[in-house]
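Allow me, if you will, to draw on your knowledge of protein folds for a short while. I have a record of one protein: its chain in single-letter code and its fold written as discrete structure tokens. The full record is reproduced below for your convenience:
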Amino acid sequence: MNHRFVHFGPVLAATTVDLTLLKELLNRGNKTTESHVQHLAGHLEIENKFTVDDIVWFVDNFGKYFVPYFKKLQTEEDNSYYYGMKPFNRVLLQSLWINYMQKNEFNPPHRHGGAFSFVVYLDVPKNIQQENIDFKGQGVGPGAVSFYYGEEQVGIKTSHAIVPVTGDLWMFPASLKHMVPPFRSDVTRISVSGNFFITDELNKKAPMQKGEFLIDNQKETTNA
């Protein structure tokens, strides 16, 4: 039997980032100085904004990781999966920032701006993994991230929680609510987040902006 799975609601995707790129992104992040805290929902002391040059570098080196996700949302040729989002090809990374999450800090439930968002984990200390193993509650464990959508319904998954590891890259609709509870270990959990806008109509016939790229011009990377 050939089943066809029709999906509606938010689609998340995950992959693993090359270690060399991970190190360079962390190096660039450690050089940031401009605070981005006033624009974010997190209860974190240090969340810094990357420069435009960093955004251009990120798109040039990380764009390939997003292509399979963007294409999957639009495909009508997969005989076993259908989502059918309106076609788009031009996207702009409008903002990029680094998060240094420390003991007792947290991200309350929130959404992002734009069409799509992501988080790449540069350093998730083993202490946080252990805290999740030891966690006795029924909710989301320390330092994990929980995505949730709509009302709870019997037999339908309306949330997804992950305990991230270093190198993970998660992609999701910017409007999808998510949150991160605090951890207790005296460590720093480092991640980078950003927001993509679809610019096919907004920038139609205009020159490509810094941080903008065409999906069809990118090589795909599907290593996870």
Residues 37 and 129 are 26 Å apart (CA to CA). Helices lie at 19-29, 52-74, 126-134.
